[in-house]
From TrEMBL:
The SnoaL-like domain, residue ranges: 15-143
Protein name, entry field: 3-dehydroquinate dehydratase
Organism from which the protein derives: Streptomyces badius
Signal peptide positions (record): none
InterPro entries listed in its UniProt record: NTF2-like_dom_sf (IPR032710), SnoaL-like (IPR037401)
Domain of life where this protein originates: Bacteria
Length: 156
């Protein structure tokens, strides 16, 4: 393998690790680590679209949204599938399917609220920095299942 291919493979491995670290921080509710996953400063304005939310722009607004999600989610786990990484220069594009298992606050007598599964397709854009690869943009879109479509088509 020539030097160029070796560097590209190393970059892809670093981007994949940064992507995984982002989801792991969210699973643990580690706000400090999650904040560190995003581009610092406002030189390149970060953006985020959570499924069903409007576009959030700017580091403060994006990080507040994650603080809100963490505060209202007792349990969340991501199983990433279909992970694909494309790169050009100092920018990397990661697409994946987030298979999410989450639980809300505990109901009376239970340790956790009911667990809910959902599928979200996500695009995460990373930029290379002196401190490694940082998120520039996250966009998540729900995947409609056939049962969702059936419900919409049934007469009311």
């Amino acid at each position: 393998m020539n030097e160029e291919h070796a560097q590209a493979a190393a970059d892809i491995a670093e981007v994949e690790a940064a992507n995984t670290a982002f989801y792991e921080a969210l699973e643990r509710g580690d706000y400090e680590e999650l904040s560190g996953s995003w581009l610092p400063g406002e030189d390149l304005t970060v953006s985020c679209v959570h499924p069903g939310w409007p576009v959030l722009t700017g580091r403060g607004e994006v990080l507040r949204s994650y603080a809100l999600i963490m505060a209202n989610t007792e349990y969340i786990q991501f199983f990433l599938t279909d992970v694909n990484i494309a790169m050009t220069g100092d920018t990397a594009l990661v697409t994946c399917t987030e298979n999410i298992l989450s639980g809300g606050p505990a109901e009376e007598g239970n340790a956790l609220g009911p667990l809910v599964g959902q599928l979200v397709v996500a695009t995460n854009v990373f930029r290379r920095t002196a401190d490694g690869w940082k998120l520039w943009s996250h966009h998540g879109s729900p995947v409609l299942t056939e049962s969702d479509e059936d419900e919409e088509e049934s007469p009311s």
